[in-house]
Amino acid sequence: MEINEILGRFEKVYSTGSNQWQCLCPAHDDKSASLGIKLLPDSRVLVNCFAGCSAIDVLEFAGLSFDDIIPNRIGDLKPVKAAFNPYAVLKAISSETLLVAIAAMDIANGKELSEHDRARLMKATHILREAYAKCH
Hints:
Blueprint: H1 3-7, E1 14-17, E2 20-23, E3 35-39, E4 45-49, H2 55-61, H3 66-69, H4 86-108, H5 115-134
Antiparallel strand pairs: 1-2, 2-3, 3-4
Helix pairs in contact: 4-5
């Protein structure tokens, strides 16, 4: 479906930049043009309601589907690398570093680690190495 056909499904559409528009969201009683629409270079169309409506609801109320905004380009698709969440990586590093520090203090104080504690220390090492790998 062409972008002009898609935009024709919405009210009070105005341009906010190159291949970007703002309009009323049909999924809620919108009075302030809270729906953003963007045409990507590969012909996909992004819709985002800044008031929080889901894309599915927006499309349904506009009489559209994902097939209308995402062209059928199966042959062009490449595997997508897993999403990288830097907050989650930093949180894991923080937690696992604390665990390693506690184990190090116990060892320095002459405490022998139990089999369970040694296994958990090895898991912490693995998690820290995975966190490092995700940053590359």
